[in-house]
Amino acid sequence: EADIYQTPRYLVIGTGKKITLECSQTMGHDKMYWYQQDPGMELHLIHYSYGVNSTEKGDLSSESTVSRIRTEHFPLTLESARPSHTSQYLCASSRVNEQFFGPGTRLTVL
Amino acid sequence: GESVGLHLPTLSVQEGDNSIINCAYSNSASDYFIWYKQESGKGPQFIIDIRSNMDKRQGQRVTVLLNKTVKHLSLQIAATQPGDSAVYFCAEEGGGGGATNKLIFGTGTLLAVQP
Fold first, then answer.
1. Residue closest to B103 by CA, chosen among A55, A2, A28, A96
2. Measured at the alpha carbon of residue A99, what is the angle toward residues A85 and B72, in degrees to the nearest 5?
3. How far apart are CA A103 and CA A6, in angstroms?
4. pLDDT digits (tens, 9 = 90+) for B82-96
5. What would the DSSP string read from start to end of B26-46?
6. Residue B24: its chain A contacts at CB < 8 A?
7. Are strands A10-13 and A105-109 parallel, antiparallel or unpaired?
8. Closest to A51 (Cα-Cα) out of A28, A35, A34
């Protein structure tokens, strides 16, 4: 098991709410990633980070934002949740090539 | 743009049989490929990887084959077990190279193992 954690695992929230999805890893990896995945579909990269104070947008446009103040922590924030944000969000980290994934947060916006 | 796709969205096999999951990629410059297994409600788990300077790599009950000529990747699972039931994704490293290790994922294949 990889040492990467996500909270909450499940979140049901109303439209317009601000939410933050937490991701932490204890492996000391510099690179971290956020993916969005709809059920049974491929993973789409929405954000990534090379290291502290480095963040980049991924291949899939997302209204979410991220921050990387500490190596081990890479939270994702939605300022105003909408039903179109309903999805699974997966966090990952890597040192070289292999990415280790967290268990994911399943977000439902009503 | 770059893309990675799987030929079969669903594969049903009998317990004990060998499984073969296929994947096509489009970026001939990709030099690293990974197979992940994702069980229901969990994040993807690493199975096996291969670099472009190899055409075959074996792990425990799994083998990955890489055919660069036709840009094809396959995952072979020997003696498939019920615990192998999951969605399998191939991914290639592309766009940014080694600095970012960005992976491009294909559409998953659901492997259903029948007892």
1. A96
2. 95
3. 6
4. 999 999 999 998 644
5. --TT--EEEEEEE-TTS--EE
6. none
7. parallel
8. A28
The CA distance from A18 to the nearest CA of chain B, in Å, is 24
Beta bridge partners of A104: none
Omega within 30 of 0 (cis) for the link into A103: no
What residue ranges of chain A have pLDDT lower than 50?
none
For residues B64 and B62, what is the distance between their CA atoms, to the nearest angstrom? 7
Q: Note whether A48 contacts B34, CB cutoff 8 Å.
A: no
Q: Which two tokens stand for residue B47?
A: 């199975």
pLDDT tens digits, B13-58: 999 999 999 999 888 889 899 999 999 889 999 999 999 999 999 9
Exposed/middle/buried for residue B31 (C-beta within 10 Å: 0-12, 13-18, 19+): middle
CA–CA distance, B27 with B42 (Å, rounded to integer): 29
Cα A100 to Cα A54, B26, B56: the distances in Å are 19, 24, 23
8 Å CB contact of B101 and A97: yes
Residue B39 CA to residue B30 CA, distance in Å, equals: 27
Q: Which residue has the tokens 């994947």?
A: B23
CB neighbourhood size of A50 (10 A): 16
Interface residue B41 vs chain A (CB under 8 A): yes
Instruction: Please say whether the beta carbons of A90 and A35 come within 8 A.
Output: yes
For residue A79, what pLDDT is reported? 94
Question: Between these two residues, A62 and B100, which has the higher pLDDT value?
Answer: A62
